[in-house]
Predict the structure.
Amino acid sequence: MIADKDKNTDRNRYGRKPENRSSRRKLEDNENQPFHVKHQKEGKLQLVCGMRPVLEAIDTKRQIDKVFIQNNIEGSLASELRKAVADAGIAFQYVPVEKLNRMTSSNHQGVVAVISPIVYHDYMQTLQDLLDEEKKPVFLLLDHITDVRNLGAIVRTAECAGIDAVIVPDRGSAQINEDAIKCSSGALLRMKICREQNLKTVINLARQSGLQVCAATEKGATSYLNVDFRRPTLLIMGSEDTGISSELLKMSDVKACLPIMGEIQSLNVSVAAGIFMYEIVRQRQSDSEA
């Protein structure tokens, strides 16, 4: 079943009181709960609870952000679930049962999957479509941005600045949930978001397709004002604490920095991203007016 994330109610979505924990029967492999999708408001977080419902969600290609699995869960169905999660490349985490109980009052059977509130786009197809339209695409790659407020603010600016798509890693990034959507003022529901397993593959494909790869970093030797953003571009912004990973920096064509006049030697990543994106807007508008 799919249950709303609401830990403040003592009844589940069907109006029944949840079972007492001590009276819950043990997990059995022959349990076969129905997989029922309840229509919810766009952008609202959904949870799929139970082993067979989660397996069916994976099998039917539902876009799952993460699966939480109870510690030390055993049995053939649990093994099948773990294999399905791994084969699908879905992020997962082993957690104590208390965490699952806090997430939902439904009979979760030791497994809860978080369904994405947005539809993700395929990066390769998105890039090819833009090139076929003879556009000069601009992609924004977020290298493990973990704060939902920063993520939301960046995507909001990207939507306003006309960025074609935002790319995030499938693991180690802020979860796109109701808070992130709220921080983006709904831009996450409008922006094309691509979720990719391998960021190095993203960069390689961009370079093969004629995009310049620009890393925004305080370690850069080139001013952001001296980068030709009229070219097709993949702009990389790094995580709040460590910046862009060394591997991605090495793959970049240009490392661009912002001037820092004060004693604090770094900007908030969402602020820095906004400056870079609107420099892209400025250059392209100036080029079209020339």
Notes: Residues 123-289 form a domain with the Alpha/beta knot fold (CATH 3.40.1280.10). Residues 1-43 have pLDDT under 50 and may be disordered. The longest helix spans residues 269-289. The chain has nine helices and twelve strands.
